[in-house]
Structure formats: C-alpha cells, structure tokens
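Long-time lurker, first post.

We've been arguing in lab meeting about whether pyridoxal-5'-phosphate would sit comfortably in this protein at all. Half the group thinks yes, half thinks no, and nobody has a model to point at. So I'm putting the question to the forum: if I give you the sequence and the SMILES, can you give me back a predicted structure of the complex? Inputs are below. Any interpretation is welcome too.
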Amino acid sequence: MFLLTPGPLTTADETRAAMAHDWGSRDRSFVELSASVCRDLAALVPGDDLACVPMQGSGTFAVEAALGSLVPRTGRVLVFHNGSYGARIAEICRRIGRAHTAIAHDELAPLSPAALAEALARDSAITHVALVHVETGAGLRNPLAELVAVCRGHGRRVIVDAMSSFGTLPLVACDAIIAASGKCLEGPPGMGFVIARRDALAAAHGNAHSLALDLADQHAALERDGQWRFTPPTHVVAALRVALDRLTAEGGPPARLARYQRNCHALVAGMTALGFAPLLAAEHQAPIIVSFRGAFPELYERVRARGFVIYPGRLAGHATFRIGCIGALPDDAIANAIAAVRDALAH
Ligand SMILES: *Cc1c(COP(=O)(O)O)cnc(C)c1O
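Top reply:
Settle the argument with this. Predicted structure of the protein with pyridoxal-5'-phosphate, as tokens:
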C-alpha cells in the first residue's frame, strides 16, 4: 500500500527496518543517536546558534509546545493565515490563553507580504507572527522569505509551521521552525521538533502553560545529560536517523525537492489528461500534495483497492480530493496511481 497523503507517508524498507531493535532510552547509544538526529535537523535550517528540541507526539504537539513556550504570557500573536493549519494555530492560542489576532486570507492564494506589513503597522502590540509555510489542506506554498522579511522589518518574532516543507523547500532563518518526523523527512510519525535559537530557548523558562509541552525544560534536560524528560519514541528516533542518512544520500533537500517536483508534474499532467483540474494555479502549487476538483464518493475505495491511499480535500465549498507527491515512493508510483484513478472512473 502506498500513502499518497499529507502524512504519515510511505517509508523506505531500510527506514522501517531500523525499528526492529529495542532501545533503552537512557542507554548511551540512544543518547548519542538522539543527539545526532537533533544536530542534523538543526543543520537543515539557516541561522546561527540553533538548537533542535524534539517533542514526543505528532506535529501539532510541537506547534503547541512552540507557541506555549516561546510566546511569553504577555505576548500577542498575529496568526496570518490562509488555511486549516493556520486556523489550528489560532485555536491553539485560544486554548492555551495566548492573546492573538487571526487574519484569514483566501485559501486559494498565497499570503500577501504587503497585507502582512499593513497588519503589523496597524498593531504595535503584536510581538510574534505565526505563519504556515505550505498549507497542506490545499497544497499551497506561501512566500516564506518575503513574509519573514516583513516581520523582521517590523521588529517582530516569527514562528513558522514548516511541517510539510521541512527537508524539501528552502527555509529561511526564523525565531522558530516547527516540523515533524513523518512528512518530507520520510521517517515514521511520532516525533515533532522545534528549531530555535539557544538564547531564545534559555529566555523561555517559565513561559509554558504545560509541563509535557515545555520546550525550554525539554531543551535544558537534553543539554544537561542528553535525556528526554519523559519516555522518548525510541523507534521513531532510530528510524529518523536512517531517514536523515537517506536524505543526505539522495543529495539533500534540493534533490528531494527535484524528485517531488517530478512527481507533482507527472501527477498534474496525468490527472489533467483524465479531466481533473488542479484547484490551485500552477504557480501557487507546492510539490507536496495536489488538490483536484471533481471528487466522487467511490473514488477512494476503488483507488485503495489498487494499492493507493488518497484523501478528500479540506476546503469548505469545493468538492476536491488530494493526492500527495511525497514519501519514499518507487519511480512508477505516480503513473500507477493515475492508472488506478482512470480505472475508478471507468467503473
Ligand atoms: C501535518 C501538518 C501539521 C501537523 O499535523 P499532525 O496531524 O499533528 O501531525 C501541522 N501543520 C501542517 C502544515 C501540516 O502539514
């Protein structure tokens, strides 16, 4: 079965095989493994003096940990967004009691740096801006470098959910970048992480609303003796180690991006030939997951019977379905998935 979804994704045999071993979380070999994974994750982000703080759980746990730990209780977050993952950030702020302003833009168009500049100029109380790099609901790529430059120009801190772009699309230096093991890194799900400056993590003590999701505490424990505070997802960390080695062997993020772009082009061309139009304009499409118009109820089961998992769309008001371009897929996976859709249509 191949997962053409926003994650979890298809992983390589080698990555899955790394989970066939049991690790003691306090064992020296696991402590070294965990440190090497964090070091290599931090090295994928531009910027100085960065630390990667891992967090048990799915990506949302890491998003919640980042907001609760890095935004002081007196801060105010501007959630400037165009989709469901941005809306989730606003909901997190609401639940954990961080003052915030959510500005929702058109889900089919990238966030406008000019509109962000205007929002920041209007409200000097905003201390932090939260952005989503690729809105996985639609598959849309936001102009991260331009948006971050606007925040910097206005002297505000920036927290970026780069969940579905990390390890693939180019990143820029931010105050915090959040991602997870089970997306473009092609590891199994189960570990999120936040990459932030060491001084910002040190300054974050006492901010968190939660014990388990306190990034500053987690960071301090790892710095002290290499231990996670609570049971780490040992198998996930071990598999992510192999997945990171595979990323390097492939040629790093540029090579992975090129592979996903080939998948995306083949997918859009093949589906268009079957009569399914992509929801987004080509220039806004991230090579991560593609939303197509014209979903029909039997589609998912019929495509699944041919070995491919695809998902319904996530946009209100549009009958769409989504097919992912990411994961450790064989070269013929996209062509075979298109053939499966063709058969489902013919049925
Ligand atoms: C996957 C994803 C998340 C995290 O979702 P989880 O279900 O918690 O793993 C957050 N933001 C974006 C943009 C995502 O694609």
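For your lab meeting: The chain has a mean pLDDT of 96. Residues 195 and 347 are 48 Å apart (CA to CA). Whichever side wins, do check it experimentally.
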